[in-house]
Every structure is written in structure tokens, then in C-alpha cells.
Automatic annotation (TrEMBL):
Keywords assigned: Transferase
Domain Aminoglycoside phosphotransferase stretches: 31-249
PANTHER family tied to this protein: AMINOGLYCOSIDE PHOSPHOTRANSFERASE DOMAIN-CONTAINING PROTEIN, AMINOGLYCOSIDE PHOSPHOTRANSFERASE-RELATED-RELATED
Name recorded for this polypeptide: Mph(A) family macrolide 2'-phosphotransferase
Gene3D superfamilies per record: 3.90.1200.10, Phosphorylase Kinase, domain 1
Gene: mphA
Gene Ontology molecular functions: transferase activity
Length: 313
């Protein structure tokens, strides 16, 4: 059962001694097992309180808090050009686990659809993602979070496609396209990096024309850097996406990955397969129908593109 905003405010006052709660506003993210609220104190300072509902969510929150503690020195040293949540205190929950409280990071969620090319926000986003991928992988290992090499990550993607295929709901031509890309060994020669793992526009905060913060670090792993680029390539205007990628590549110190963009686009497509699997596993027919519709649209789009390339050839 979800906790009330007042219960979350009470947890915040326990976690941060001296915090005098003046107002509270629920800020839950749909589909998660964590209650979230923004607490405003008597000095108008804003705090985020997060309380897990399940043991698994509690363990994920603890791992994320450990990682965030390790990231802070990189922010302070300027190696990460954006803020990350900094846990200020914890409150033990009666059923076990702890709620975590941190100051709210200033900024508004990024609007990818209106992103413009040039040296401003698009370049800032590219530099931010590159800096994230330059972090030492030991940070993830020390926090007990997942670490994959290139072959293991490719196998993970193959397992997702195999499971999606067994539903019988993926268009055959799209399925063959995915399988061909997964069988192309050259495509999967990459150096694993620290990746956020679940970036969306809601997670990237913007202030005064630059990326000011990145939120929700609970899916961090060592894996394919293409995963953190797919949402940009899929949703941003093409010229803006190219500007992001240019800034990204300039900021990376060791980038010899000719297939990075190909894997990023594939990752965006496979996100639809995972959405389908989520609907199937949860028995939610609305999600299944939504996923199937998007997969059919994707299949039509990719076949049209391939036909156009064939006719030119």
C-alpha cells in the first residue's frame, strides 16, 4: 500500500534532523515500488523523500545510495558536469529497509522534441553522457551492481528477443532483422562503460540552457554505452541528435566504436520488445496491445526504409 504524503513528510523529518516540514507533494513514478514525495521545509528548501514498498525496492535503493555517495566526489571535482542526488539522511521503516532523503536538484525535465542543434543544450547533453561513460567501472562493481562484458550483454539482448519471439506477437520481418543484427559479431565489439541504464527526459534536468542534474540511478550497470544514447536518437530531431553525438564523441577519450549508433538505434527498438514482455508477464492486455501496435508501426517503417535503400542501390 502506498504511503500518504504526510507519512512521507514524517519520514523526512526523522531522516534529516532539524528539517521542519511546511508542505509536501506526492511525486510518484508510475510502475515503481517506491513512494516518492517532495517535502518543502520552513525555509522553502525542497527535499525528496523516497520510501521502498518491497524488500527488492529497498535493496535497490540501498545500492543506489551507495553509488551516489561514490559519485559525489566526481561532481565536486568537475568530472561530472551535472549534479546527482546526495543522500542527506535515512529513516528506518517499521517493516524493514530505509527511506532516503536528499535535497531536490534544481532544473526542469529536458524536452527532447524541442532540442535544437548547436553549442548549447545539445552539446551539454552530449558532454554529460560522455562524462558519465568515462567514470571508472569500479564504482559500479564496488556498489554491487551488475557488470557485463560485451559478449554477455549481447547474449542478454538475444535472450530478450527469443522471449519476445515466443509470444508470437513480433512481426516476422522485424524479428529476422533483430536476429541478423544480434548475429553480426562485429556489431558487438565494444568497450563496456558505466551506463545509467534507464534514461528518459524526466531523468535529465535542465537549467539555464545546460544539463543541471541526472536522476534515478537505480538501473546503473557496466554495459553497452549505446543504451544511454538510444532515447536521444529515437526521440530528438535528427539535426539535434547529430549535435549531441558530435559533442559526445569529442568528450570521450577512448572511442573506437564504429557501430555505436547502430546499437543505440537497435536498443531503442528492443525497448518495444521489453514493453511487450512487461505486458505479457503482468497480464495487462492494454500494454500488450500498445506494444503490438508500436511493433507493427516499427516494422512498416523499417521495411519502407529498407525498400528505399534497395531501390537506390
Amino acid at each position: 500500500m502506498a504511503r500518504s504524503p504526510l507519512a512521507l513528510a514524517a519520514l523526512a523529518t526523522v531522516a534529516v534532523p532539524g528539517l521542519d516540514a511546511f508542505d509536501v507533494r506526492r511525486s510518484d513514478h508510475p510502475g515503481t515500488d517506491t513512494d516518492v514525495a517532495v517535502v518543502i521545509d520552513a525555509t522553502r528548501r525542497r527535499w525528496v523523500v523516497r520510501a521502498p514498498r518491497t524488500a527488492a525496492a529497498g535493496a535497490a535503493l540501498e545500492a543506489e545510495a551507495a553509488l551516489l555517495g561514490s559519485l559525489a566526489p566526481f561532481v565536486d571535482a568537475g568530472r561530472l558536469p551535472f549534479a546527482v542526488p546526495r543522500p542527506a539522511g535515512f529513516a528506518h521503516l517499521p517493516e524493514g529497509g530505509r527511506a532516503c532523503v536528499h535535497p531536490e536538484i534544481a532544473g526542469q525535465p529536458l524536452n527532447l522534441e524541442t532540442l535544437e542543434p548547436g553549442p548549447g543544450l545539445a552539446a551539454s547533453l552530449g558532454r554529460a553522457l560522455a562524462a558519465l561513460h568515462e567514470l571508472p567501472t569500479s564504482l559500479v562493481e564496488d556498489a554491487g551492481l551488475p557488470v557485463y562484458d560485451a559478449s554477455a550483454y549481447r547474449a542478454r539482448r538475444q535472450a530478450e528477443v527469443d522471449e519476445a519471439a515466443r509470444t508470437g506477437k513480433v512481426p516476422p520481418t522485424l524479428l529476422r532483422r533483430w536476429e541478423d543484427m544480434l548475429e553480426d559479431v562485429a556489431l558487438w565489439r565494444f568497450r563496456p562503460t558505466v551506463v545509467h541504464g534507464d534514461l528518459t527526459s524526466e531523468d535529465v534536468l535542465v537549467r539555464e540552457g545546460v544539463v543541471s542534474g541526472i536522476l534515478d540511478w537505480n538501473e546503473v550497470k557496466v554495459a553497452d554505452p549505446a543504451d544511454d544514447l538510444s532515447w536521444v536518437l529515437v526521440a530528438a530531431p535528427q539535426d539535434a541528435a547529430e549535435a549531441v553525438m558530435e559533442a559526445y564523441q569529442l568528450r570521450r577519450t577512448e572511442l573506437t566504436d564504429p557501430h555505436l549508433t547502430d546499437r543505440a538505434l537497435l536498443a531503442g527498438e528492443l525497448a518495444l520488445a521489453r514493453w511487450l514482455l512487461h505486458g505479457v508477464r503482468s497480464g495487462d492486455q492494454e500494454i500488450v496491445a500498445d506494444a503490438v501496435e508500436m511493433l507493427v508501426d516499427l516494422d512498416d517503417h523499417t521495411r519502407t526504409d529498407e525498400d528505399a535503400v534497395s531501390s537506390v542501390g
